Amino acid sequence: FDTLFARLRALHACQVLVLKEPELTKHFVELMHLVPQACFVVAVRDPRDVVTSMLDWGERSRREGRGHLFQQRDMAALADFYLAFYRRFWLDFPPELHARLRFVRYEDLVHDPREMGRRLQRYTGVPLADYDP
Q: Is the pLDDT confidence value at 110 over 90?
């Protein structure tokens, strides 16, 4: 991972990498061991909004002629898809991850992005003062 991160930093001329990929949430336990300097932020969105977005996405896919789980309107399957991102934490939350992990409500990010930016800057050390939401 060190080589990968070094190449990414060189490619983008940066010192700090922010990887925004929801699928990585499922792998935080492994990543905390592979990248000891990493801190983790999970934006948690109201599940009702997530399911609504999934159904909208499924409808767009259907109109484009592509099939997808989100088209089936199977609420149990959609809930399972949503929970898969957080299940690992609820079932086996290693104490050493606790200090390196913050949960942020998506709605708070949308409602007051500047305040949430200040909080995230304090936690991560990533300079966000110049960020204009």
A: yes
Share of the chain above pLDDT 90, in %: 35
CA distance 121 to 111: 17
Which token pair is 33? 């061991």
0.90 exceeded by the pTM?
no
**Helix locations, the chain, DSSP H:** 2-12, 28-34, 47-63, 75-83, 87-91, 95-98, 106-111, 113-124
**Across the strands, what pairs with 40?**
101
Determine the Cα–Cα distance for residues 124 and 118; give it in Å rounded to an integer: 10
Secondary structure class of 130 (helix, strand, coil): coil
Cα–Cα distance for residue pair 6/15, rounded to 1 Å: 9
Query: Stretch 50-68: mean pLDDT, rounded?
Result: 92
Distance CA 16, CA 14 (A): 6
How long is the chain? 133
44: which residues sit within 8 A by CB, 6+ positions away? 86, 103, 104, 105, 106
Our CA angle for 2, 129, 106, nearest 5°, is 80
